Amino acid sequence: MPLRQTNRRMRLRRTGIVPSDARVRHYDELEEETQVAVRELAGRPRTAPETDDLDDGDVVKFTDYYQVRAR
Q: For the chain, which terminus, N or C, has the lower number of CB atoms within 10 Å?
């Protein structure tokens, strides 16, 4: 998974509302290593290094909708 050259980390938060301006990424469109990170982060209070595939505010459609938060 291409990591960004920042110290930012991302977390996934389940969301029932998809903002109209959010970029929605489907799980199967992501790089394989990013898919692994999504599986590990979905529904858990964990963080992982930020990747090139996902940006802060993006929404990933996996088993549910998850919003990416990066700090």
A: C
